[in-house]
Structures are given as C-alpha cells and as structure tokens.
C-alpha cells in the first residue's frame, strides 16, 4: 500500500458527496459548533487547530526534548489522516493485532504488577522489562491519554503504541536519554511509519559531536537494518509474551540487539577516568 | 448511383483501360445479331449484352460491385406496395389475395425478379405474404449469360426453385419487343398483359441521342393491363445529381462508393422527361390500326415520383423531394 | 471383428466426435437424399433461442415460416418447471425495461409467473475501497404521484424459459418442430440435387439425434438460416468457421439465493426495492445483491477462484457472515476474514459483529442476509468472448454464442434478448421484402445493428472490472472515485447513463 495513495484517496473522499459512508472521514466543523467527543477524553479539533498543534508541539519538543506531553501531542496531531489508519490496518491484518484491538488491553502498573514481573525467569521479556524500568527509573503510568485522534479505535492504537514504547526500549535495551531515544525512534519510524517518530529525529541537531558520530556509525545503521526487516511491533501482545525469552522474541521479530549505550558510555567514562588517572600519575 | 449495372462498370471491372463514354446504346427497331435468337425488333445492342455478361460472376456477391443494387432492392418492394395501395387492375382489390402478375424488363441477374418470386405463395390459393401480392413473375433479359446465371441462382432457394418448376416464375432470354410480338402472357394467359411492369435501372442506359426512350416506354405500357402500374427507377440529370453521382460517389476511396466511370452523365433522365414520354407513350400505346390514342388516355393516368438517397453506413432511404439529387423511383398507372 | 462389439463401441465414439465440425465448414455432403427443409433452425433452447422462436411465431409476418429448435435438455420438463413459492432458483437474470418491452411485444411476458418476478427502482453502487458511490434512483426522477420507474426486473431464468415455451406452445404446432432431448450430431453443407431438385450446396444440413444411446438414424434437416444460440462453445460457430477472441477473467461468480432481514429504515415508497453492488478491489470483484420477491435476494459475487472455493467451503452461518461483511466492512477486514480458519475459536459472525461496531456503515447498506436457501450456492467461471462476426452465409449467432461478458452489470441475458429482437426484426424485414432470410445481405442488417452495441457494453463491463480490481489506493482508485463522484453529482450525466443502462 503506498503512502501517497491513501492520502490522495482521503482527499477524494471529501470530494464525493457521501463522506458519511466512509468510516475514516471526518466532517469538517468550526470552533463554534465543536461536536461531542467520540470517546472519553477526546478533544475534536478543526484542521487549523490540528495544524497549529502540530507546529507548536514540534517546536516545543525540539526546544525541550524532555517534554513528553508535547511529543505525545505532536504524535497525535500528525498521525491523521493517514498514518494511524495504516497502523490500525496493520493490526487488523494480523490475528494477534486483531485480538489486541478486540481486547484493548492497557499497560499500567495496575495491569502489569512489577512484583510479579520481577519473579519471572532471568532473560524473560517481563523480567527484562522490569529491569529496564528499574534501571531507567521510569514508570508505565507516566503515559498521557490520547485526546486529539478522532476515531476511537485509532485513538486506542495510538495509546497502545505509546504504552508499548517502553517494551521496545526494554527488548532493545536502549536507554531513555536522547541518544537511545533517537535510535529507537528511528527504528519505530521505519516500523510504524508514524510521522512523529520521524520528526523526533530532528533532535539529532541537539546532540554533541561525539554522540552524532556514534549515532551515525552505530545506531542509525542498526535502526535502519532492524526497522526495515522487522515485523510490525504493534502486533506483539506484550502481556502474553512476558515469560518468553527475550532473545527468542527478538529473533521472531527480526530485531538485532543494538550495542548497549549505557555500557558504551560506561566504557568511555572509565577510559576517560583511566586517562585522567594516568595523566595525574604522570604529572604527580 | 445505383446504375452500377451500366456497361461501363462492367468494362471498368474487366480492364484497366480508361473509360470513354458510350455513344451507341439502345436502338429500338435496329436489327442486330443475337447469339441465341434472331429478332427483328429489339431495344438492345450487342455492346450492352457483352458488357452485362461480364458482370455475371459478381452479380450475386453481396460485397461485389452490385452491392448497392442489392441494398436498394427492398425499396423497390416498398415503392410497388405504395403504388398498389392506390389502386390495381382489379375493381375491388383484396389485400390478402396473391393475384397480381409481374413482368420485369431487363431483369439482369434477377435481383428484383427473384426477390419478388420469393413472395409468391407456395400454393396459388394461399394468402399473399406481402403487400406486393405477386401471383407470378415473368422476367426478361436479352443477355443469355445473365439469364443463365439468374436461373442458376434461383435454384439455390428451394422455394423459388419450386416456382420455376411450376411456371409461376419464369426467366426468359428475350426482349420486350418479342414478348409483345409473341404474346407471351402470364401463366395461363395468351395475352401479353400484366398487372405490374417493372423497369428498374434501365432508362439511364438508353442514349437519347441515338435511340428512343419514348418508343421503348410505349412498348412497356402496351404490356400493361388497364389500371396496372409501370414502375421504374433511374437517375436524374441535374446539377446536384452531377455533384453527388459524378463528383462525390465516384471520388477516390474513402469518399466514393462506386468505381470511377460507373455513370454516364448524358444518359441520365429527369422526372419531367420520363413523365412526358409516359404521357406520350400512353397515347401511343392506345394506338390501333384504326384509331389513334388521344388526350383521353392521359386523363386516367396516375404519376408518382419519389427520390431515393444512399447514405453510406445507413443504406437507402426514400426521401420525397430529392428526385433532383440523383436516384428516384417513378411509376405511372394506366387509366382504367 | 464381430458386429456385436462394433455396436457396443458406437456410443463411445459418438460421444467424442459428436459434432465432428472442428475443422470448419464442410464442403461436401456425406449423405445424399433430400433433407427436410426449414426456414429457420435454431440450435440451443436457452432464453435467447426460445426468445427467437417465440418472436418469430408471434409476428404475423414470420409466423408462417417453417422453424425448428434443437435442445439437448428436456423442454417438456422446462415447461413444467415448478418451485415452492418461497424457493427461488439461483440462476436469476436482471431484465432491463427494453428486454421486458420485447417480451411483452412477443406476448411472452404474460406467461411469466409475476409472483416470482421482482422489479427494482433503485440501484446503489459503491466502491468498497474509497467509499465513493453512485445511486441510480428513478424515484428521484419521477414525481411523487407516479410510480417510480423500474431500473430492471429480476426473474429466474427457469421462469423466463417456461414463459417462452408456453408462448411458443400457444402459437400451435403448425410449421414448428421442437427437437427436445436432441443433439446435433453433425452439421454439413447440402448437395446440389440435380437435375430436378434445388441446389442446396450452400445450405447447412444438420443431423439430429436423440440424446442417450439410440440406434435410430439421425434426422436430417436443411436450414435456410441456421441460428447459433448454442452458448459459449457454439458448434454452429465452429461450423461457420467464425473465430472468437477473448480471455478468462481468472474470477468466479458465486451465486446463491438468500433470505433477507428487514431494513432499519423501511423503503419509501414501501414498494421501492433496491439492488446493491459494492466493488471489492481487494477481493477481485464486486458483490451484488439483487432483490427477489418475499424479501429474498439473489447473490452474485465475483471473486478469485481461491476466494470462491473458500466461500463455498464455509458453513452457512459463516457464509452469511461473509456476505454481510462484504457489504459493510473495510477491505482489510474482508481480506483477513477471507483467510480465517474454520477451526478458529472466533467465528466469522463474531468478527462481523465486532468489526461492525468500529466501522462507520454507509447509508446504502442492504438488509442483512439471514438464510441461504439450501443447495443454491454455486459458482461459475467468468469469461469474455466476442465472435469475430455474428453472421456468415446462412448462419447467425445470438447470445452467448456471439458474446460472453463480465456479469457485473447483469447485461448478458439482455444483450442476448436484444440480439434476438434485432434478428427477428431483420427476418421480418427480409420476409416482407422478398429477401432470403439466410442471405448475407439480409443478415448484415442484424450484425450491423448488434455488433457495436454488444462490443460497447462488453467493453464497458471489462473496463469496470479492470478498474475495480486494482486493489489499494492509487491513481486508479482516485480516478474511479472521482469518476463515480462526478457522475453522481451531475444529474444530466447520470440521467443519461441511467437511460442508457435501461436501453440495453
């Protein structure tokens, strides 16, 4: 399915008289008669508002990449009209994906008890996830709810993507600082085609020269290799594979394990430390 | 356009020599040698005969040079039917009885004669299947080749063949003059008197400079019963007709529909000329040894004339008022 | 060899070389003696062949012609055909108003069981991929005080065949021979019966044999005009050495008789019935639901042979779920459901129920199919064929023998009846003008009247098929969506199209 194709068809949908017949079509409205929300928490936006939101959140998140709320808003504002439907259709074409859409599971500390995850065998997906959360000091409950996507099912798909994001971190072992985040976003972009993941790569400009070099020579090639080869990550029913061996899962998904950034950093720091000590010894 | 059966066409088909206008043609009362019979009176020249005969092999080919005539043939039936609806030789015509006797002069390969013979019911008592109500058909042509070919072709339709066998359909290798002289009448009659005499695409082959259409038409009228119809078709000699028949119809492919040299302009006749000859002819036909026919002969005469147009891709259409544009049907009814 | 074993072999030999006409028109007759002469001999007793017979018998001009019809099936059975009022055959055709007018004109429509016939006044056609649609609704064109105009009339083929047979029977048996349960053993050209007899060397002479093993000598009849109404593999066409071109679509048409539930919104006016057609590019062709009486409908679903085999293998509830899904769900869901294992925990019905909740349904969705009439699910391959010409000396082809088209517009039978109407008109013209009905100059009137319209309709259906089997989005999808959208918005264009559709 071509990326351009769906966009063109959607424009034509607006042309034909019976846009009501198309499940994905959104009727235009003005700010004065904003329609009722399609699901709890939904904020219907006009096209102009959506554009403004996309630009604003893009600029904001570039200034401050730690503003997860802005990145989330950017993701939602740019996911329609095409990309989120593509992702949903990818789920609908897969038996597991369909089950996820049917069950609509949520990933929170309530649904996935950390205490239980920590009891799982070493190198299992659940244990790896728990270890990653512990190492990075993050919680699954910090995810925002989707509010700007009009179709309720697509809103769930966006929510699911967002909540699975930490699992991607966990199975790839990529940390949450900018370098690791960018490597994962590059992989996600090629895997999900969500524009926000691609747009996030602009944060590249904020990296230090050494980080840039490392990113271009190590993690970007990895992301491209894995991203193009891998199966749709959105179709992983994480709740059901917690006990699976993480290497096995990576093999199933066709994802290589990237070089561990924290180890690299540690090595570099140790090297710098050694050099410093050597210098100090030499001078002392 | 429909006079493709002209001898020039035959010549055009057989040789690639440039065609020169014919100077000699029908010569009534001219003694010539005929291959089959010797006649003292005939309206046919030896030239005519040989040229017509050359056409024989392609006469019945629906895609051949006579195609345009084949296409016109249904209109002849319609024209005769329209004439008969105005009156016949009978005092009280019965539209269902097939009792009209036809004489076709210059039948050629039999395009019209055979088609009319096909409408003769299988038994004389049966209902007439068409408004032409034919009981019999006598078709004459002086070309032996054409008559033989016409007979051969008629055998290919068992219904027509049956009529040939029982005599209600006849092909005679003879001339009109001989029909009158020898008193060749319809089946069971010893008088050369017919209900309908047809003369399709014949008049334009008479050269007015050297022969007499008047004499020929007078003879045709002589073969007609009182109240009967003499019907024919020909081409008019007018400027629009010249444009249509000489310039457009004979233009090179793809505009033209007939081979170059098909028509002989000088021999075309206009409706008023035909009408004039017929009026005169009616009077002459009434001549007897003691009495000469007078103006009273013309009184009961009915005259019909309607143009016919050929549109490539659509076929022939009768269009009243287009007599001057080329082909037209004409008919005269002899006074009762 | 002993004679007994020879005679034992004979039926087998006859099966394989029954027609014996593969090499084209034979030049010499193998048998002498004079055959029985007929004016019109029609091979094939389907709607087209019987339609021609009925038309010839109905016209006072042609009713005196000696005519014969040869059909392998039992015409007596066809004339006695009967089904329960709640049962409908799966071989159903849509008759355009001009076909109905022709049937009325030849007096056959009165013999149709009208309780088994359903008119429809509205036609909803839409693209399952892009959602663009076109609505053929005559009730918009007519004032509320007159009856809405009929787009087409649905009738079972068996009902139509029975009506035509009754009409023919009504005309008496004078000059008429119906060779039922008979096959054409051979077609040859006749011979010149010199010196007394006519020359039949240009006439087709048929040898007719009863079906099944029989020792009787075949009956020989000669035809002034031999009409091939004998289907896609027409023996008459082979005899006339007329070539045919075309292709197989690689698609099958699934048919079934369905019982329907009620519409959420009752139709207005209450008698208004709608035909539904949704193009499913991802599945290889359109699905159509055409109304029958008593809230029944006939299904015609063009799809790939794999999908057709899958659909036929499904249990009735799953089959119904697929049919209902095909009018409601998106291509992604349909493609997925078309591959669902029958042993899966989740049934097609579950999938349909779940997906319907998350799919915005178009307004033109048909009422749900609630039951399949037993034994009516069947499939047939879709093909395109067009004979190089319809006529040759003493031969004319009508219906499927001349052309086979994609059924997406339901025009196949209508084209056949239009052929028959034209040919019977041509024969009438010929008879009333002293023309030989088998002559090429006669027959070319028929062929010039029908060749182009048939090629046009067949080509249009082919184009539609090709446009609507390009899956996914892309220039083709935009173009067809734009096309349908523009047509739907321009009343003049649409009304022109509707009138054109009605004409054939």
From TrEMBL, chain A:
Pathway: Cofactor biosynthesis; ubiquinone biosynthesis
Compartments (UniProt record): Mitochondrion inner membrane
Xref: InterPro entries: Coq4, Coq4_euk
Name of this chain's protein: 4-hydroxy-3-methoxy-5-polyprenylbenzoate decarboxylase
Topology relative to the membrane: Peripheral membrane protein
Source species, domain of life: Eukaryota
Lineage: Eukaryota, Fungi, Dikarya, Ascomycota, Pezizomycotina
Single GO molecular function: zinc ion binding
Subunit record text: Component of a multi-subunit COQ enzyme complex, composed of at least COQ3, COQ4, COQ5, COQ6, COQ7 and COQ9.
Signal peptide: none
Cofactor(s), names only, from the UniProt record: Zn(2+)
Binding site for Zn(2+): 165-166, 169, 181
Organism: Penicillium salamii
Catalytic activity: a 4-hydroxy-3-methoxy-5-(all-trans-polyprenyl)benzoate + H(+) = a 2-methoxy-6-(all-trans-polyprenyl)phenol + CO2
UniProtKB/TrEMBL annotation, chain B:
Membrane topology summary: Peripheral membrane protein
Alphabetic keyword roster: Magnesium, Membrane, Metal-binding, Methyltransferase, Mitochondrion, Mitochondrion inner membrane, S-adenosyl-L-methionine, Transferase, Ubiquinone biosynthesis
Amino acid composition bias (Polar residues), ranges on this chain: 17-42
Source organism, top-level taxon: Eukaryota
Protein EC: 2.1.1.64, 2.1.1.-, 2.1.1.114
Cellular component, GO, one term: extrinsic component of mitochondrial inner membrane
Cofactor: Mg(2+)
Record keyword Electron transport present: no
Region span, Disordered: 1-42
Pfam family, one: Methyltransf_23
Residues that hold S-adenosyl-L-methionine according to the record: 76, 106, 141, 200
Example GO biological process: methylation
Record has Oxidoreductase as a keyword: no
Location within or outside the cell: Mitochondrion inner membrane
Main location: mitochondrion
Pathway linked to the protein: Cofactor biosynthesis; ubiquinone biosynthesis
UniProt catalytic activity: a 3,4-dihydroxy-5-(all-trans-polyprenyl)benzoate + S-adenosyl-L-methionine = a 4-hydroxy-3-methoxy-5-(all-trans-polyprenyl)benzoate + S-adenosyl-L-homocysteine + H(+); a 3-demethylubiquinol + S-adenosyl-L-methionine = a ubiquinol + S-adenosyl-L-homocysteine + H(+); a 3-demethylubiquinone + S-adenosyl-L-methionine = a ubiquinone + S-adenosyl-L-homocysteine
Quaternary structure annotation from Swiss-Prot or TrEMBL: Component of a multi-subunit COQ enzyme complex, composed of at least COQ3, COQ4, COQ5, COQ6, COQ7 and COQ9.
Family matches, as PANTHER family: METHYLTRANSFERASE (PTHR43464), UBIQUINONE BIOSYNTHESIS O-METHYLTRANSFERASE, MITOCHONDRIAL (PTHR43464:SF19)
Family statement: Belongs to the class I-like SAM-binding methyltransferase superfamily. UbiG/COQ3 family.
Protein's name according to its UniProt entry: Ubiquinone biosynthesis O-methyltransferase, mitochondrial
Organism: Penicillium salamii
From TrEMBL, chain C:
Listed name of the protein: Ubiquinone biosynthesis monooxygenase COQ6, mitochondrial
Spans through the membrane: none
Alphabetized UniProt keyword annotations: FAD, Flavoprotein, Membrane, Mitochondrion, Mitochondrion inner membrane, Monooxygenase, Oxidoreductase, Ubiquinone biosynthesis
Assembly mode: Component of a multi-subunit COQ enzyme complex, composed of at least COQ3, COQ4, COQ5, COQ6, COQ7 and COQ9.
Biochemical pathway: Cofactor biosynthesis; ubiquinone biosynthesis
PANTHER family the record matches: UBIQUINONE BIOSYNTHESIS MONOOXYGENASE COQ6, MITOCHONDRIAL
Similarity section: Belongs to the UbiH/COQ6 family.
Top enzyme class: oxidoreductase
Gene name per UniProt: COQ6
HAMAP family (UniProt xref): COQ6_monooxygenase
Organism from which the protein derives: Penicillium salamii
Chain ranges of the FAD-binding domain: 215-450
């Amino acid at each position: 399915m071509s990326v351009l194709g769906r966009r063109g068809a959607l424009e034509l949908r607006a042309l034909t008289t019976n846009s009501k017949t198309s499940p994905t079509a959104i009727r235009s409205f003005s700010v004065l008669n904003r329609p009722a929300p399609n699901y709890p928490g939904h904020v219907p936006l006009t096209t102009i508002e959506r554009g403004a939101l996309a630009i604003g959140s893009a600029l904001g998140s570039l200034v401050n990449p730690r503003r997860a709320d802005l990145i989330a808003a950017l993701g939602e504002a740019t996911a329609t009209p095409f990309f989120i439907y593509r992702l949903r259709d990818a789920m609908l074409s897969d038996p597991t994906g369909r089950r996820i859409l049917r069950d609509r599971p949520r990933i929170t500390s309530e649904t996935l008890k950390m205490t239980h995850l920590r009891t799982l065998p070493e190198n299992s997906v659940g244990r790896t996830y728990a270890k990653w959360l512990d190492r990075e000091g993050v919680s699954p409950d910090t995810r925002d709810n989707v509010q700007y996507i009009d179709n309720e099912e697509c809103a769930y798909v966006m929510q699911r993507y967002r909540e699975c994001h930490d699992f991607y971190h966990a199975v790839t072992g990529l940390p949450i600082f900018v370098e690791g985040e960018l490597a994962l976003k590059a992989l996600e972009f090629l895997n999900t085609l969500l524009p926000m993941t691609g747009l996030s790569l602009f944060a590249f400009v904020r990296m230090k020269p050494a980080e840039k070099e490392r990113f271009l020579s190590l993690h970007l090639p990895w992301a491209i290799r894995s991203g193009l080869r891998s199966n749709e990550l959105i179709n992983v029913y994480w709740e059901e594979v917690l006990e699976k061996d993480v290497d096995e899962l990576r093999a199933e998904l066709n994802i290589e394990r990237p070089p561990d950034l924290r180890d690299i950093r540690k090595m570099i720091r140790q090297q710098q430390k050694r050099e410093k000590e050597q210098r100090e010894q030499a001078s002392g | 356009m429909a006079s493709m059966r002209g001898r020039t066409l035959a010549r055009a088909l057989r040789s690639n020599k440039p065609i020169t206008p014919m100077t000699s043609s029908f010569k009534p009362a001219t003694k010539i040698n005929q291959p089959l019979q010797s006649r003292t009176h005939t309206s046919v020249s030896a030239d005519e005969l040989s040229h017509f005969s050359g056409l024989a092999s392609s006469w019945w080919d629906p895609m051949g040079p006579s195609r345009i005539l084949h296409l016109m043939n249904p209109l002849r039936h319609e024209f005769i039917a329209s004439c008969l609806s105005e009156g016949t030789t009978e005092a009280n015509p019965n539209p269902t009885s097939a009792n009209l006797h036809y004489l076709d002069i210059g039948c050629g390969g039999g395009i019209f004669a055979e088609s009319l013979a096909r409408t003769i019911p299988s038994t004389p008592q049966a209902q007439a299947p068409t408004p032409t109500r034919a009981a019999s058909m006598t078709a004459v042509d002086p070309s032996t080749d054409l008559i033989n070919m016409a007979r051969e072709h008629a055998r290919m339709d068992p219904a027509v063949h049956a009529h040939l066998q029982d005599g209600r359909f006849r092909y005679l290798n003879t001339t009109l003059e001989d029909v009158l002289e020898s008193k060749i009448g319809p089946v069971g009659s010893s008088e050369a008197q017919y209900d309908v005499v047809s003369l399709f695409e014949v008049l334009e082959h008479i050269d007015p400079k050297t022969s007499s259409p008047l004499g020929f038409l007078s003879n045709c009228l002589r073969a007609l019963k009182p109240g009967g119809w003499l019907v024919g078709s020909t081409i008019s000699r007018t400027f629009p007709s010249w444009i249509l028949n000489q310039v457009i119809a004979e233009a090179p492919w793809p505009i033209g529909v007939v081979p170059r040299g098909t028509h002989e302009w000088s021999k075309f006749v206009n409706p008023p000329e035909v009408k004039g000859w017929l009026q005169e002819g009616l009077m002459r036909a009434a001549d007897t040894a003691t009495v000469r026919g007078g103006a009273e002969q013309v009184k009961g005469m009915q005259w019909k004339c309607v143009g016919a147009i050929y549109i490539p891709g659509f076929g022939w259409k009768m269009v009243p008022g287009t007599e001057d544009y080329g082909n037209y049907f004409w008919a005269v009814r002899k006074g009762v | 060899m002993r004679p007994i074993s020879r005679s034992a072999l004979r039926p087998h030999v006859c099966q394989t070389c029954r027609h014996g006409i593969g090499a084209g028109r034979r030049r010499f007759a193998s048998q002498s003696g004079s055959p029985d002469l007929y004016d019109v001999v029609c091979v094939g007793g389907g709607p087209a062949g019987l339609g021609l017979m009925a038309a010839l018998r109905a016209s006072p001009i042609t009713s005196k012609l000696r005519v014969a019809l040869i059909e392998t099936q039992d015409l007596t059975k066809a004339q006695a055909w009967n089904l329960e009022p709640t049962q409908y055959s799966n071989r159903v055709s849509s008759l355009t108003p001009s076909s109905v007018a022709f049937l009325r004109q030849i007096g056959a429509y009165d013999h149709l069981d009208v309780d088994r016939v359903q008119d429809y006044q509205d036609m909803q056609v839409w693209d399952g991929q892009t959602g663009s649609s076109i609505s053929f609704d005559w009730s918009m064109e007519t004032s509320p005080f007159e009856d809405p105009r009929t787009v087409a009339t649905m009738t079972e083929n068996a009902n139509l065949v029975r009506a035509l047979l009754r009409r023919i029977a009504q005309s008496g048996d004078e000059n008429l021979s119906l060779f039922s349960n008979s096959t054409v053993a051979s077609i040859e050209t006749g011979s010149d019966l010199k010196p007394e007899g006519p020359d039949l060397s240009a006439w087709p002479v048929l040898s007719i044999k009863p079906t099944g093993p029989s020792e009787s000598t075949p009956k020989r009849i000669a035809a002034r005009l031999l009409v091939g109404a004998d289907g896609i593999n027409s023996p008459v066409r082979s005899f006339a050495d007329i070539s045919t071109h075309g292709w197989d679509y690689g698609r099958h048409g699934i048919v079934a008789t369905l019982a329907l539930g009620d519409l959420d919104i009752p139709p207005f006016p209450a008698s208004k019935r709608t035909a539904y057609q949704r193009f499913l590019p991802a599945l290889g062709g359109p699905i159509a639901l055409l109304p029958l009486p008593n809230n029944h409908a006939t299904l015609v679903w063009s799809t790939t042979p794999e999908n057709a085999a899958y659909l036929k293998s499904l249990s009735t509830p799953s089959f119904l779920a697929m049919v209902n899904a095909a009018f409601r769900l998106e291509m992604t869901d349909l493609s997925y459901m078309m591959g669902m294992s029958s042993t899966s925990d989740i049934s097609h019905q579950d999938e349909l129920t779940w997906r319907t909740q998350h799919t915005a349904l178009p307004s033109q969705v048909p009422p749900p199919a609630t039951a399949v009439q037993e034994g009516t699910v069947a499939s047939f391959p879709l093909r395109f064929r067009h004979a190089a010409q319809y006529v040759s000396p003493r031969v004319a082809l009508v219906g499927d023998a001349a052309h086979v088209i994609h059924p997406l517009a339901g025009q196949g039978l209508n084209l056949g009846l239009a052929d028959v109407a034209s040919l019977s008109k041509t024969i009438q013209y010929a008879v009333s003008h002293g023309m030989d009905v088998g002559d090429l100059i006669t027959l070319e009137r028929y062929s010039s009247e029908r060749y182009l319209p048939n090629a046009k309709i067949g080509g249009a259906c082919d184009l539609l098929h090709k446009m609507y089997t390009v899956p996914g989005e892309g220039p083709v999808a935009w173009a067809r969506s734009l096309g349908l959208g523009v047509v739907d918005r321009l009343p003049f264009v649409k009304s022109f199209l509707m009138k054109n559709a009605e004409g054939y």
